[in-house]
Amino acid sequence: MLKGVNKLIIEVSNPESDFFERAIFFVKPEKSNTVTRELSENVSGIMNKAEAASKSGRIKPRKPRTKKHSLLKFAGAAGVGAMLASLLIKLIG
């Protein structure tokens, strides 16, 4: 299935920003005929809000998951599965 064949996309490069290198906006199809100035103002407003949120500390970067974290999640899920299996065996048998 193809998506985005007839999409209006706006890419904003902002080398002056301390936080963002660039942003990509996908314009809603019903708004694709909007005047360029109005789109530009809307994009600028969103970028300013995002920049302010980053500076205030409200947006925090996600820490990359480690192998240890993934292994712990897998072991926990396996333990819960084993407990449920043993419970089912006791109930059935």
Shape: elongated
Alpha-beta content class: alpha+beta
User: What can be said about the biggest beta sheet?
Assistant: 2 strands, antiparallel
> What level of helicity do the residues show?
40-55%
Strand content: 5-15%
Number of strands: 2
Average predicted local confidence, pLDDT: 80
**Discrete helix count:** 2
Order of helices and strands: EEHH
Q: If strands are numbered along the chain, what order do they take across the biggest sheet?
A: 1-2
Distance between the termini: 48 Å
- Residue ranges: pLDDT <50 for 5 or more in a row? none
Count of all domains: 2
**Rg from C-alpha positions?**
24 Å
Give your account of this protein's structure:
The chain has two domains: 8-56; 64-93. Strand 1 and strand 2 (22-27) form a beta hairpin. It has a two-stranded antiparallel sheet with strand order 1-2. The mean pLDDT is 80. The protein has helices spanning 36-56, 67-92; strands spanning 8-13, 22-27. The chain has two helices and two strands; from the N terminus they run ββαα. It is of the alpha+beta class and 93 residues long.
Jot down its keywords.
alpha+beta, two-stranded antiparallel ribbon, 93 residues, elongated, 13% strand
SSE blueprint and pairings:
Layout: E1 8-13, E2 22-27, H1 36-56, H2 67-92
Antiparallel strand pairs: 1-2
TL;DR of this structure?
With 93 residues, this protein is α+β, with helices and mostly antiparallel strands.
